[in-house]
């Protein structure tokens, strides 16, 4: 991830196609260890893919097709029942949290 972050910083700074030496210089500047093989793997995976904007746009299209979860469809009655059950579960958790409080044990986590 640090190699990609360095690459993105260089592109944002005006270097349209950062080299391995450029990425290494950024990572060295903050005192981190550099793995040249990972830099080369990043650069080879980006090679021939177009501009960074095009790559990001293509990735955004892929994310748009990924389901994001949520409540299953089943009508208003099911939604009402699940919200009522969620409210009851939240109340139970709140009561449990009060019972398991650090105040009851006589010490705090950071004392």
TrEMBL record:
GO cellular component assignments: cytosolic large ribosomal subunit
Matching InterPro entries: P1/P2_N_sf, Ribosomal_P1/P2, Ribosomal_P1/P2_euk, Ribosomal_P2
One Gene Ontology biological process: cytoplasmic translational elongation
Source superkingdom: Eukaryota
GO molecular function, one term: structural constituent of ribosome
Signal peptide span: 1-16
Matching CDD domains: Ribosomal_P2
Biased composition (Low complexity): 72-89
Alphabetical keyword list: Phosphoprotein, Ribonucleoprotein, Ribosomal protein, Signal
Chain residue ranges for the region called Disordered: 72-111
Pfam families, alphabetized: Ribosomal_60s
UniProt record similarity statement: Belongs to the eukaryotic ribosomal protein P1/P2 family.
Subunit structure and binding partners: Component of the large ribosomal subunit (LSU). Mature yeast ribosomes consist of a small (40S) and a large (60S) subunit. The 40S small subunit contains 1 molecule of ribosomal RNA (18S rRNA) and 33 different proteins (encoded by 57 genes). The large 60S subunit contains 3 rRNA molecules (25S, 5.8S and 5S rRNA) and 46 different proteins (encoded by 81 genes). The 5 acidic ribosomal P-proteins form the stalk structure of the 60S subunit. They are organized as a pentameric complex in which uL10/P0 interacts with 2 heterodimers, P1A-P2B and P1B-P2A.
General function of this protein: Component of the ribosome, a large ribonucleoprotein complex responsible for the synthesis of proteins in the cell. The small ribosomal subunit (SSU) binds messenger RNAs (mRNAs) and translates the encoded message by selecting cognate aminoacyl-transfer RNA (tRNA) molecules. The large subunit (LSU) contains the ribosomal catalytic site termed the peptidyl transferase center (PTC), which catalyzes the formation of peptide bonds, thereby polymerizing the amino acids delivered by tRNAs into a polypeptide chain.
Protein name, entry field: 60S acidic ribosomal protein P2
Lineage of origin: Eukaryota, Fungi, Dikarya, Ascomycota, Saccharomycotina
